[in-house]
Design a protein that fits this description.
The chain is α+β, with helices and mostly antiparallel strands. The protein contains five helices and three strands.
Length: 151
């Protein structure tokens, strides 16, 4: 399927996601049998010959609104990953501001934008929230108490 999509619709946004899924389904570095290994490797070879011809040599930069978030230089091929974290308070203070990713140089940039947060609520609200979440199971609960000066 991957080979057919690359040949028939090479600009399809789904192709890198299929590659990610294909690689994620390996067990101990391989697929289930010799036939799966062969077809997966042939499809991945076509993918890399099509999309990864140029050796990476670029700088990636990130902005939130007009504020600079950071940068990272990529030179050569590697499995290196780099993360730029922006605190939720900074995201919230940039109401509806654009997140901009810029690449200067040659090569292909792969990126993921994600958000991790914890809702602001007290312990009782949290337990109620988690018990009502579909498919959730509360296994461990860490509670942080802050000392309050009563006077």
């Amino acid at each position: 399927m991957l080979e057919a999509l690359i040949q028939e619709q090479p600009n399809l946004d789904l192709i890198p996601k299929i590659v990610t899924g294909l690689l994620a389904h390996r067990k101990a570095g391989r697929w289930l049998n010799t036939q799966e290994n062969t077809f997966a490797l042939l499809a991945l070879d076509l993918y890399f010959q099509t999309y990864e011809k140029v050796t990476p040599d670029f700088v990636a930069r990130v902005w939130l609104g007009n504020d600079y978030g950071g940068d990272h230089t990529f030179k050569g091929r590697s499995t290196e990953q780099y993360a730029i974290s922006i605190a939720m308070k900074d995201v919230a203070s940039h109401d509806k501001a654009a997140l901009t990713i810029q690449k200067d140089g040659k090569g292909r940039l792969y990126y993921r934008i994600g958000m991790t947060y914890a809702p602001a609520m007290n312990l009782g609200e949290y337990v109620h929230f988690m018990s009502g979440a579909a498919g959730s199971d509360l296994n461990r609960l860490h509670v942080h108490f802050e000392a309050v000066d009563l006077g």
